[in-house]
Amino acid sequence: MSDTFEEQFAPLLKEVFTAQAQEQLRQGADGLALAHSYAEQGKPDFALAFLLLAGIPDDEKREVLAQAYEQRARFSEEKARQFDRQFHRSFPLIKLEAQKDRRLARAIRSGQVESSVDIPPDK
Questions:
Q1: Per the CB 3.0–4.6 Å rule, which of 5, 9, 19, 50 could disulfide with 31?
Q2: Which residues lie below 8 Å from residue 101, measured CB to CB, with a gap of 6+?
Q3: DSSP letters of 26-59?
């Protein structure tokens, strides 16, 4: 794993997320706390913006980002179950996105995410 967290993930993040994170930090926000909060909300793009600005080790950043993708997968699966009940039919594309998020979380933890990987945007 020769690439740093920033080298791997900074090119994948849209500028709007970085600008918002920088603005919140200028206003005195706790960036690491916000990264964790966004991870708990299943919002990996927002978590990533704060992680790129955080002064913590790369392995901790990878863990928080992976948690964000896993949480988004859990939320997606729950949404699919709700839609299944509400509309009495299956929603396989939502379940497929959840599977992709889980795979991406595993890849992030192992450091195997390449900068050419297309990280799906927050939903």
A1: 50
A2: 69, 70, 72, 73, 76, 120
A3: HTT--HHHHHHHHHHTT-HHHHHHHHHH--S-HH
Please check whether residue 75 is in contact with residue 39, taking contact to mean a CB–CB distance below 8 angstroms.
no
Choice between 42 and 113, residue whose per-residue pLDDT is larger? 42
Buried b / exposed e along 30-48 (16+ C-beta atoms within 10 A): ebbebbbebbeebbbbbbb
Residue partners of 22: CB distance under 8 A and separation at least 6: 53
Indicate the pTM of the whole model.
0.87
Domain ranges of the chain: 5-108
Tokens matching residue 112? 């195997």
Q: Token pair for residue 49?
A: 């913006």
Q: Are 34 and 24 in contact (CB under 8 A)?
A: yes
Q: Give the SS3 label for residue 97.
A: helix
Q: How far is CA 10 from CA 58, 78, 119, 121, in A?
A: 13, 30, 11, 14
